[in-house]
Amino acid sequence: MVSDPSSVPRRKIEYVIFDMDGLLIDTERVYTEVTNDILAPYGKTMTWDIKAGLMGKLERDAAELLLSFFPDIPLTVDTYLSLRRDAQDARWPTVQPLPGARRLIKHLHAHNIPIALATASQRRNLLLKTAHLGDMFGAFGARVVCADDVAGKTRGKPEPYIFLCAARERLGRGVGEGEVEACGEDGEEWRERARGLVFEDAIPGVEAGKRAGMSVVWVPDANLLNVEYSGAHLPDQTLKSLEEFVPEEWGLPPYDETQ
């Protein structure tokens, strides 16, 4: 369990970057179920201790790490990914938003707060997962960074690259590149990073957001709270769901009473 460092004053936020899987839509359940269906004939199970280290990684890297825990089963990475893709593709068009996600995205969009999506999903998968949720994901427009967009430039979270890419190339923020320590706390790049807020459900994603120099709200699956927190940086706020987020705590417009 990670304590919420609530005694630290919140930064005033000007732009927001969201992860997707397990934060906005209920896809982590599908990942778990499909993987365990594939492992079941071999008497194996992906526990949350294993899963916690896979979250946020690029697809092939995550598959290689997963199978490294089961060296005695005759599954290649390519075979596993093929089986997984077929099973997942059948389920993606039915996934639903997680509590509070639609309300928060539409609220920020209505108040002209710059928002972007930064996901380790491939674009084909993103389209399968979100095509039936256009009223929600349409708010992002073209301000989306997928695994395809950063291929060859990063190994995925916990590296901060994808969040900096989203801020720089999708929102036009002058955040520069590299770890936040390289910016210097008196520089404009550091200040510009500090104006950003990241929402994440995964520990590597929290680490990536903090290494980018942004504030991070962590909204973990309840199962993750039983896994030892392995990040070098703590989130700025930990919530049970996005329904608990209070925008005005971060200098963002409050929800309308009718929302």
Q: What is the H level of CATH, i.e. the homologous superfamily of the largest domain?
A: HAD superfamily/HAD-like
The main pleated sheet reads as: 6 strands, parallel
Number of helices: 11
> What distance lies between the first and last C-alpha atoms, to the nearest angstrom?
31 Å
What integer is the average pLDDT? 92
Estimate percent helicity.
25-40%
Give the tally of structural domains: 2
Question: Any idea what the radius of gyration is?
Answer: 18 Å
- Which segments are poorly predicted (pLDDT under 50) over 5 or more consecutive residues? none
Dominant shape: globular
- What is the number of strand segments? 6
The CATH top-level class label of the largest domain: Alpha Beta
User: In order across it, which strands form the biggest sheet?
Assistant: 3-2-1-4-5-6
CATH topology of the largest domain: Rossmann fold
Percent in strands: 5-15%
Per CATH, the architecture of the largest domain is 3-Layer(aba) Sandwich
The ordered H/E elements are EHHHHHEHHEHHHEHEE
Helix/strand/pairing category: alpha/beta
Organism: Leucogyrophana mollusca
Protein name: HAD-like protein
Describe the structure.
The chain has 11 helices and 6 strands. The protein has helices spanning 28-39, 48-54, 59-68, 77-91, 101-110, 123-130, 134-137, 147-150, 161-170, 188-194, 203-211, and strands at 15-18, 115-118, 144-145, 196-200, 215-218, 237-238. The protein has a 6-stranded parallel β-sheet with strand order 3-2-1-4-5-6, sandwiched between helices. The relative contact order is 0.19.
